[in-house]
Amino acid sequence: MIIQFVEHSAxxxxxxxxxxxxxxxxxxxxxxxxxxxxxxxxxTCAIGMMIAVTFDNGWxxxxxxxxxxxxxFVSGPLVAxxxxxxxxxxxxxxxxxxxxGGLVVIGGSILFGLLYRHLYQHNKVGNGLISLFCFGLLxxxxxxxxxxxxxxxxxIAVQAGIAMLLVMPLTTVCLGWMLEDIKRRHHNERELQISxxxxxxxxxxxxxxxxxxxxxxxxxxxTVTGYEAEEVVGxxxxxxxxxxxxxxxxxxxxxxLAAAGRWQGExxxxxxxxxxxxxxxxxxxxxxxxxxxxHYVSSxxxxxxxxxxxxxxxxxxxxxxxxxxxxxxxxxxRVQQAINFTENNxxxxxxxxxxxxxxxxxxxLYGHETGDQVLLEVARRLSRVLYSNDTxxxxxxxxFVIMTENLSVSHEPALMRAEQYAMRVxxxxxxxxxxxxxxxxxxxxxxxVLFKDAxxxxxxxVLFKDAxxxxxELIQHAEIAMxxxxxxxxxxxxCFDPAMQEEVNARLLLEDDIxxxxxxxxxxxYFQPQLNELGxxxxxxxxxxxxxxxxxxxxxxxxxxVAEQAELIEQIxxxxxxxxxxxxxxxxxxxxxxxxxxxxxxxxxxxxRTDFVEMILQFLAESGADPRQLKLELTETxxxxxxxxxIARMQELKKLGIRFSIDDFGTGYSSLAYLQKLPLNQxxxxxxxxxxxxxxxxxxxxxxxxxxxxxxxxxxVIAEGVETQAQYQKLLSLDCLHFQGYxxxxxxxxxxxxxxxxxxxxxxx
Length: 765
Description:
Low-confidence stretches: 454-469
Number of domains: 4
Number of helices: 27
Number of strands: 24
Largest sheet: 8 strands, mixed, barrel
C-alpha cells in the first residue's frame, strides 16, 4: 500500500507542474490565473481519486489532502474553494460508504491549509522543509484521528492511515517546495524582465568588470556615443575619455568608488565621431560576498542641451541681445572687480558713459530697424578702440559704457589719458553711418569719471574706502557727467565733479518738495495783463507762482526746469488751468470783467495726453466758465511731435470756442506751413525779438514779417516782454496791436490785479 501511495503521489506531483504553464500564460491577469489554478488543483484531486487506493466497502484513499491543503496555503482561499468544489463534486459522484469521510477530508484539508497560510502571513510559522513536514504530519494525523472516530472505518483506517503518515507528510513537503519554487522562479523571471526593461531606458547604461572592461551596454548607449555594442564590449571605458580631465580626476573617482561604493558628477566624454560632450555620470560598485568589487554599473545622461540652455540663460542675463555686449548686470560685476583691483595696485581707472545725440530722431524718421543697425555699428566702432583689458557694455537704448583700467598712479596723467580716450571715441562716433541707402549722422555726449583707492584725494575722482563700495554709485556719477555734457551741447565731454552730485541731490530734494507743494495746493496763479492798441485791458496771462510754506513766494525760475525734468510740469499746468476756469466763471458775473480772457500755457506732455480734451471739458463744466474766454498757449516746437494728433485735439476744442495762441513764435526754426493747418487765433512774438527791437535791424524785420504773415492769415499778434514806451511805439508802427509786459503791469496776485484793473479804462474784447 505504501508503494501505491508513493506512485499515486508522484503522479499528482507531476500533474501539479501544470501550474507552471498556467502562471506563464496568465501572468498579467491574476484573477484568471487563480481561477485556472483552482480548476487544475480540483482536476488533479479528481484524477487522484480515479487512481486512488480503493477498498471493497467503498473507502477511497488518495493524496487529495496534500493537494488541497497546499493549494490553500500557497494560493489562497479562491483557489482552494474552486479546487474543493471540484473535488467534492467528484467525490459525491463516486458515492460509497466513505463519501462523508471523503468530504470531511476535502473540507478539513482546505481549512488546515488556510489556517497555516494565516499563521505564515503573520510570521507565526515558516515555509521551510521542516515546517512543511510538520504541517503535513499534523494535517494527516488529524485526518487519521477523524477516520478512527468513524464507526465504519475500523481496521481499514488504521491500515491506510499508517501508510498515509509515512508518505503524505513527505508528499506535502515535496508539493509545497515545488509550488514555492515555481513561484520563486516566476518572480525571478519577472525581476529579470523588469531589470532588462529598466536597462533599456533613455539614459546610457554600462556594465563593466572590475578592470573597467565593458560587458554590456543598452541601446541608448549607441544613440548617444555612436558606438555599436560589439565595438566596445571587452574594451576599457577609457575609450570615452575626452582629454579634459587629468589622471588625478580619475584617481579621485576610483578612491570614492572604493570607499563609498558610488560616484556621481559632471564629466566630459568623447563620442565615436570625436565630438566632446558633457554628461552626468552615476557609477556604482558591485561587491561579492567577500566585499571585493566585481562589477561597475554606470548610468549616464547626455546634458549637452541642458548645458546649452544654461549658457543661453547666462548669456541673456549678462549680455545685450542686440549687440552681444555685456549688459548692466555684468558691467556692475566688472566695475566692482575694478574697484577691488584699484585698492591693490593704486592706479586710476575710469568710466566713459556714452549717450548718442539725436538717436531718437533716427528711430522716428527711419524706423527701429535702421536704429538697430546704427547701434550695431556703434558697438563695432567702440570695440575697435578698446584696449585689451577694457570692458564695453550697453546699458540702454543708446547708452554705452567703456571701463578702462591702469591709467596712471597720478591724477593728472590719468585724467589726460581718460579725456584723450573720450575724444577718440567722440571722433569715431561722429563719422557718418551708412545704413542701406541712407547716410546718417550722429555724435555722442560723454561723461567721464575717474576712480581710485582712498589713499589720495583729487577733485573729480571717486574714492572708495573699501571694496564694498557700490559700483552702481560709480556708474551714476558717470551718468551725471554725461547729462552735464549733453546739456552743454552736442558732442561734448564732461568729467564728474563732486559738485555735480550735490546739484543732483538738491534737485531730488526739490522734486520731493514740488510734489508736496502740489498736494498742498501751494501753486497759485499770478495775472499779467494783456492790452490792445487802445490801451484797453483784453485779459491776462496766468503765470504760476509757488507760495512755499517756508521760503515764501517762489518764481518759475526756481522750479520750472526741475518740474519739467521730473515730469511734474503738467500737474502744475493743470492746477493753473483749473484755477483759470474758476476765475473766468467769477468774472462772468460782473459786467466790467465778463469780457476778459485768460491765457494759460500748456506743456507738451499735457497736450498729448489721451484724456486732455476730457480734462478741459471737466474743468469748464465744474466751474461754469465760458470756453470762449479761455485761451491756450502752445509752444511752437511741441506741435511737431505729433502734428496730426495736435490738430485733431485743437479743432475739437476750437468748436467749443476755446482760442489758441502760439507762444514764443519765431524761435522754433520750423516750417511755416503748419500755420495753414492749425486752428490758431494768435501769434505771440517772443520777448527776445522785442528786447532787441531798437538795437538790431533783424529783430525789426522779423517782427514786421510776423505781423504781415498774421494779417494775411487773419490772426492776432501779441508782443510779450514790452518794457519801454519806445518799444511800444515801435510795435504800433509795425502793426502789432496787442501787448504784454512790465510797461503795462507785472504779474500780480488776484487781489492786486483786480485792484489795478479797476483803475484802467474799460476793457474791450
